[in-house]
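1st attempt posting a full record on here, be nice pls
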Amino acid sequence: MGTEDDKTKGQASNVPAVTEIKLSKDEVNEITAHINRKARDPNDGCPVCGSPLSYVLENTYRVEVLTNIPAFGGTYQPLTATTCEECGFVRFFNLNIVKARIADAETDGSDGG
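the predicted structure (as tokens):
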């Protein structure tokens, strides 16, 4: 196991590498619907075990990036994730992009596709 110094090496002392924020039930439902619409196949399963049993986690994560990316909204990326109930595989989704596509769909009346 590494020391505390090993764990924080290369990180700004006042900014955690990952920050957790909870999504509301409505946001989880909205994101779930968006991901389901985007899936290539309605039964798109886990890429590891093939199970169709996965769900959007209510946690969000703030992952720092090395440079300011204006198209993505700054020096960090807010992420949400889905996890497979069978094997635990996790997929991350950029919340800036997901929420923008949901808003676009609401504005133009499309299904977000």
